């Protein structure tokens, strides 16, 4: 409570606050809400043909094959993104790409050559997207907990004729859905929410009629679920699900039955390796894994590095293998692993920085080369953080995706970004608790605030 | 007999039924707001021994060692209100555990006291019913495993007339997914209301849902539970007093048929 109150109010002087103070705080709070900060996110083509970075409403693309930046061509007749992009994803074969966010638009792209083919209007702000492995469906979830589905009909793609509307297929009762994904065989669609839940739903043959049959709930996290990753190790046909959460753990699930197989207290383990150690509150912000689960990487909010995890699938053991540390100002906001090259791509940055009056949004991109493992699950060498000139695409890619030719000039902005993202995630995910006085004031001002 | 009277007299302090007027509460509670009461992380964390001490005389560990399977809650009364249905059902199914779920704090308190008083004045009875304060629209899977329940009750729920507020209704296509998850195959969902519009809504949601089919009328006639839906519940009695109409929809959980 104390912590939260402090956060909401911006100071700790709760006791002495008068009605006017409360009023001011409320106005302040409203303002902050408008300036909600979203983290920069990254996605990589499954065959590493291109890299996409989204920060704020900007979508930056770099074509690694052609070694050039990609201009955004929009054949859909829709508007470009006008507010923070919250989710970007490539389809399994890299042909499709989807982007969506706070502007209530879901844009569907084909990647060869890059162009937007369909702009789907959503009812509410979109918080997650997923593309079925078959490439026939794009699912997206909104902040009211509803998952919507659109069918990508090949014929329609050719003719650019899209008349269908998204259909709601399932719902978490008014909870922000944080992630959405299809299982590797498209048999299940998995949605994670802010109320600690992971729902595994059977993805039916006629999904446009709704996905009503719940296979399981994966329950065990004690805070919001922030990220999901499927793995399919050899000999385990159904595969497993990994999840990261605000409770600073990564968990391993048998998602068909909803059984919790292993829990790794990432913060406790990783904290030891960094002298200052992560904050006591340190949610797992992102998680990615190779298809067979041999590489699992997690990012924590207050860790200037990433954590490599080992998973011994037959025995259900999940442990920290290595912590890769960066300079003390680098906190990745999004991770993605390119399975084909074992390269881990990460980005740091944020949109709408309230205190920095800049119009451009710098981000900082890094790449780690993850080495092979020996049979006893030890890495043969240490993971290598690539120098800027060793990154595929080199300086050209960096200046495009980082949004600035010289990122070293932007230290201060990036530091501000790290702080802002931290705050923003908390305000979005954590349940707010108000004292009586504040609650009364909120009630009083419920409907007329917009008029001001 | 005399000793019996004596016993009740001694216990009278605790066994007297709670009086509703000390538990006055608002008629509605917002199901959308963030909840700050404790919720079990998963069904395994739900403490049965605390709710049903008669069925769990010693600690849970002891039972585990016995190897005997735990009895589990089979009936859930969602929005149990003042608990009339639970109290009515309890003697009909003395070996079945039933749980009432209610969002309003004071009302839950009342039901708790009521059950404790009933247990005290009727030793050996009413041990199979209990109540939790929770938001079942958000946290049902935290209480019940897949296919755990055989009956679910939604009696006289909030009508939420405004279209804007329809998403607050306790029966909706999306929430039915979760109810279907908690119900075993063949399990029955009972809904009743005195608001025609809501009755139509609940029926059409159930009708449209692929995991439910209507229970035929002749079966309903024979079902002892159906009579209690109106006669046992406080809301039902009120409707009967005022000579109002009720609208009932009773459906069975079926297997999904995929073509």
UniProtKB/TrEMBL annotation, chain A:
Start and stop residues of the WD repeats: 78-109, 218-263
Pathways per UniProt: tRNA modification; N(7)-methylguanine-tRNA biosynthesis
One GO term (biological process): tRNA (guanine-N7)-methylation
Any one GO cellular component localisation term in the record: tRNA methyltransferase complex
Intracellular or extracellular location(s): Nucleus
Cross-referenced InterPro entries: Trm82 (IPR028884), WD40_rpt (IPR001680)
SMART domains: WD40
Physiological role: Required for the formation of N(7)-methylguanine at position 46 (m7G46) in tRNA. In the complex, it is required to stabilize and induce conformational changes of the catalytic subunit.
Family designation: Belongs to the WD repeat TRM82 family.
PANTHER family the UniProt entry points to: TRNA (GUANINE-N(7)-)-METHYLTRANSFERASE NON-CATALYTIC SUBUNIT WDR4, WD40 REPEAT PROTEIN 4
Complex and partners: Forms a heterodimer with the catalytic subunit.
Protein name (Swiss-Prot/TrEMBL): tRNA (guanine-N(7)-)-methyltransferase non-catalytic subunit
Species per Swiss-Prot/TrEMBL record: Zingiber officinale
Automatic annotation (TrEMBL), chain B:
E.C. no: 2.1.1.33
Superkingdom, taxonomy of origin: Eukaryota
Record-linked InterPro entries: Trm8_euk, tRNA_(Gua-N-7)_MeTrfase_Trmb
GO cellular-component term (any): nucleus
Compartment list: Nucleus
Pathway(s): tRNA modification; N(7)-methylguanine-tRNA biosynthesis
Alphabetized PROSITE patterns for the sequence: SAM_MT_TRMB (PS51625)
Active site: 158
GO molecular function terms listed in the Swiss-Prot or TrEMBL record: tRNA (guanine(46)-N7)-methyltransferase activity; tRNA binding
Coiled-coil zones: none
Reactions accelerated catalytically: guanosine(46) in tRNA + S-adenosyl-L-methionine = N(7)-methylguanosine(46) in tRNA + S-adenosyl-L-homocysteine
Positions of S-adenosyl-L-methionine binding: 79, 102-103, 135-136, 155, 233-235
UniProt-listed Pfam families: Methyltransf_4
Keyword line: Methyltransferase, Nucleus, RNA-binding, S-adenosyl-L-methionine, Transferase, tRNA processing, tRNA-binding
Family (UniProt): Belongs to the class I-like SAM-binding methyltransferase superfamily. TrmB family.
Role played: Catalyzes the formation of N(7)-methylguanine at position 46 (m7G46) in tRNA.
PANTHER family linked: 3-DEOXY-D-MANNO-OCTULOSONIC-ACID TRANSFERASE/TRNA GUANINE-N 7 - -METHYLTRANSFERASE, TRNA (GUANINE-N(7)-)-METHYLTRANSFERASE
Protein name: tRNA (guanine-N(7)-)-methyltransferase
């Amino acid at each position: 409570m104390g912590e939260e109150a402090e956060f909401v109010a911006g100071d700790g002087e709760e006791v002495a606050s008068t009605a006017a103070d409360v009023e001011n705080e409320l106005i302040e709070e409203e303002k902050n809400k408008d300036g909600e900060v979203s983290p920069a996110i990254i996605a990589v083509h499954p065959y590493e043909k291109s890299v996409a970075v989204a920060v704020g409403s900007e979508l930056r693309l770099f074509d690694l094959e052609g070694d050039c930046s990609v201009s955004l061509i929009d054949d859909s007749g829709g508007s470009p993104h006008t507010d923070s992009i919250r989710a970007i994803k490539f389809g399994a074969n890299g042909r499709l790409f989807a982007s969506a966010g706070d502007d209530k638009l879901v844009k569907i792209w084909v990647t060869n050559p890059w162009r937007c083919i369909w702009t789907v209007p959503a009812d509410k702000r979109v918080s997650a997207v997923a593309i079925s492995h078959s490439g026939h469906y794009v699912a997206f979830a909104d902040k009211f907990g509803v998952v919507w589905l659109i069918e990508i009909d090949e014929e329609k793609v050719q003719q650019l004729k899209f008349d269908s509307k998204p259909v709601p297929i399932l719902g978490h009762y008014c909870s922000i859905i944080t992630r959405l994904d299809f299982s590797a065989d498209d048999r299940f669609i998995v949605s994670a929410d802010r109320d600690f839940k992971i729902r595994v739903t059977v993805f039916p043959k006629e999904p446009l009629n709704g996905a009503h049959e719940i296979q399981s709930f994966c329950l065990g996290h004690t805070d919001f679920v922030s990220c999901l990753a499927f793995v399919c190790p050899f000999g385990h046909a159904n595969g497993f699900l990994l999840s990261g959460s605000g409770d600073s753990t990564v968990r391993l699930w048998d998602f068909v039955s909803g059984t919790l197989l292993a829990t790794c207290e990432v913060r406790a383990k990783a904290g030891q390796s960094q002298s200052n150690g992560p904050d006591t509150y340190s949610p797992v912000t992102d998680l990615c894994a190779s298809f067979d689960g041999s590489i699992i990487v997690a990012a924590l909010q207050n860790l200037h590095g990433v954590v490599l995890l080992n998973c011994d699938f037959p025995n259900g053991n999940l442990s920290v293998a290595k912590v890769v540390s960066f300079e003390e100002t680098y906190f990745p906001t999004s991770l993605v692993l390119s399975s084909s090259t074992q390269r881990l791509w990460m980005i740091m940055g944020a949109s709408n920085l309230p205190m920095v009056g800049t119009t451009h949004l710098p981000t900082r991109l890094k790449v780690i080369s993850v080495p092979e493992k020996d049979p006893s699950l030890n890495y043969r060498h240490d993971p290598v953080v690539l120098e800027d000139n060793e990154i595929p695409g080199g300086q050209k890619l960096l200046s495009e995706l980082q949004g600035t030719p010289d990122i070293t000039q932007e230290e201060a902005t990036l530091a501000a970004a790290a702080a802002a993202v931290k705050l923003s995630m908390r305000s979005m995910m954590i349940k707010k608790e108000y004292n009586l006085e504040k609650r009364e004031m909120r009630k009083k001002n419920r409907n007329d605030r917009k008029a001001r | 007999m005399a000793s019996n009277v004596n016993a009740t007299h001694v216990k009278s302090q605790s066994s007297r039924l709670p009086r509703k007027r000390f538990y006055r509460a608002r008629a509605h509670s917002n199901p959308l707001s963030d909840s700050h009461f404790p919720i079990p992380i998963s069904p395994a964390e739900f403490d049965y021994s605390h709710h049903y001490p008669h069925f769990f005389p010693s600690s849970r560990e002891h039972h585990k060692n016995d190897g005997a399977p735990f009895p589990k809650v089979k009936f859930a009364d969602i929005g149990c209100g003042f608990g009339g249905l639970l109290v009515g059902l309890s003697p009909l199914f003395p070996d079945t555990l039933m749980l009432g779920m209610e969002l309003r704090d004071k009302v839950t308190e009342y039901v708790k006291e009521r059950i404790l008083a009933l247990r005290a004045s009727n030793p050996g009875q009413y041990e199979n019913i209990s109540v939790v304060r929770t938001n079942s629209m958000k946290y049902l899977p935290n209480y019940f495993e897949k296919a755990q329940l055989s009956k679910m009750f939604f009696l006289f729920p909030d009508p939420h007339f405004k279209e804007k507020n329809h998403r607050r209704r306790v029966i909706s296509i999306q929430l039915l997914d979760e109810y279907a998850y908690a119900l075993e195959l063949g399990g029955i969902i009972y809904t009743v209301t005195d608001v025609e519009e809501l009755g139509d809504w609940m029926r059409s949601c159930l009708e449209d849902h692929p995991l439910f089919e209507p229970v035929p009328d002749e079966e309903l006639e024979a079902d002892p539970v159906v009579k209690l839906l109106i006669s046992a519940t406080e809301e039902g009695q009120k409707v009967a007093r005022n000579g109002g109409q009720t609208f009932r929809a009773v459906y069975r959980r079926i297997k999904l048929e995929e073509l």
